[in-house]
Structure formats: structure tokens, C-alpha cells
Amino acid sequence: MSTAKPYSLTDLITIMQRLRDPENGCPWDKKQTFSSIVPSTLEEAYEVAETIEQKDYDHLEEELGDLLFQVIFYCQLGQEEQRFDFDGVVSGLAEKLLRRHPHVFHEGELHRSATLAPMEDDNVIKQQWETLKQEEREAKGQKSVLADIPLNFPALSRSQKLQKRASNVGFDWKDINDVVAKAEEELQELKQALAAQEKKAIAEELGDLLFSVVNIARHCKEDAESLLRAGNRKFQGRFEYIESQLAGQAKQFKDVELDEMEALWQLAKSRENAL
Q1: CA angle 229-234-240, nearest 5°?
Q2: What is the pLDDT of residues 208-265, one digit of tens each?
Q3: What is the secondary structure of 19-76 as a DSSP string?
Q4: Domain housing 235
Q5: How many domains are contained in the chain?
Q6: Looking at the structure, do residues 44 and 79 belong to the same domain, yes or no?
Q7: Which 3 state secondary structure label does DSSP give 200?
Q8: CB 44 within 8 Å of CB 70
Q9: pTM for this model (two decimals)
Q10: I need a labelling partner for 191 at 20 to 30 A (CA). Which of 133, 162, 182, 208 fits?
Q11: Does residue 195 fall inside a structural domain?
């Protein structure tokens, strides 16, 4: 935890205002727009996720600060354009949380507690949450259950979100074995497309297979995006081990056959299991 002088949220907002000052602000910060800082926002969010996944909690405070700064930046832009400000964002969020948690806040009032059973059923709470969110979507003119799922979500995350929304209204497999069977069916269709060398069909069946695998992850109550990030890290670690072993032998990839690389890959797996 940081031991530096404790600054407040008000100080952070003031810093942002100074950075955007038309005369004496930072040249880089002054030229930013809502659109231009989106890549930074996504990057900071992923850095928070990676820090948590790596259990690097010593740096989580810093990464959360970087992500919070993105919110402060958007609020400053909103205030400059007279669209919204930080207080409005906080107030809107608080109002929404109170409304969506009637099992905690009686009639959505902050200082009144709901009188529910101590062990309220999770499924009841989740269904209540989804019902309230659907009412909010309808109030915005979004009638579809699948409305408001951002198109620019990572594809795996969006697939899982689409499946979850559909499941909330009963459009779902009841047994995970049926989900696995569907993935196997998609794999067979992919094999048929590959055998026929139908490029368009191959691409379509690959997409269907990926979607079905995400569905398996959802039924296992796992996050597909996190699983693939973990798989990416595992692959990178093993591949870098092969690189280091070859370098130790003064070799490059072009100097060895695939079976030797595979042997090193298996060695890398063995080392992981021994840890």
C-alpha cells in the first residue's frame, strides 16, 4: 500500500482540471477526446485484470489508480462539453445500485434495510437483478433481451454474455453433456468442411465451434476470456522455455526438427507440474 501523502478524490479531480487547462495544461492531455482515450481505458482495464490473475497484489493499488484516472478523464471531458460531471456519474451509479438491490436497500433507500431472509437464494437475487436490468433497457427503448451488449466487447466475453442473457429467459441446455455434444457436433461439421475444402464453410464452422466451447465454459461457471488468457500465458511460458533451452545449446529454431521442439515442450510441461 502506498505510504505517500494522502491525496483525496477532490485533489485528483483538480489535477485533471489543471492538466486540461487551456493555457497552462499538459499539451498531450489538452488534445485528447472521448474517442482518443478509449484505447488507454481498455489497456488499463486489462492491466488490472492481469495484475489480479497474476496475484500481483503489491501493484494492484497502482493499476486501479490508473483505471480510476480514466473515469476522471471522461468526467472532465463531459463537464467541459456540459454533458455530465463526476458528481452526476457517482449519483447515477448510486441510484442504480440502490434500485437493483431491493433485497438490501428497502424500496431503494440508502439508509433503510430490507427485511429479507438471512440466506436469500442466489438464483432469486440474480433473476431479480436481470428483471430490473430488462426494465431499464425497455425504459431506454431497448426491447430485446440481447440489447446493450457492446459490439466491441472481446469476442469471447460477448459470446458468453449473449449466452447468459438467452439463458435467463430459458433458452439454454439443461445438461452440460448436451452442451459438450453440441460442441462435438460442430467439430464434426468443421471436419466435413475441411475435407471438402470449402473456405467459407470452414470459417463459419470454426466460429460455431468457438461459440460452443464458450458455452461449455459458461456451464462450468468459468469465464472464457480469463481461461484463454491463462492458456495464452501457459503457451508463452512453455515457448519461452524452448527458446531458452535452444539458446543454451547455441541453437535456433531452424536448427532443430519438430520432434526435438516437442520434447522440450513436454519438458516444460513437466517442470510446471513439479512446481
Answers
A1: 125
A2: 999 999 999 999 999 999 999 999 999 999 999 999 999 999 999 999 999 999 999 9
A3: HT-TTTS-HHHHT--TTTTHHHHHHHHHHHHHHHHTT-GGGHHHHHHHHHHHHHHHHH
A4: 226-274
A5: 4
A6: yes
A7: helix
A8: yes
A9: 0.69
A10: 162
A11: yes
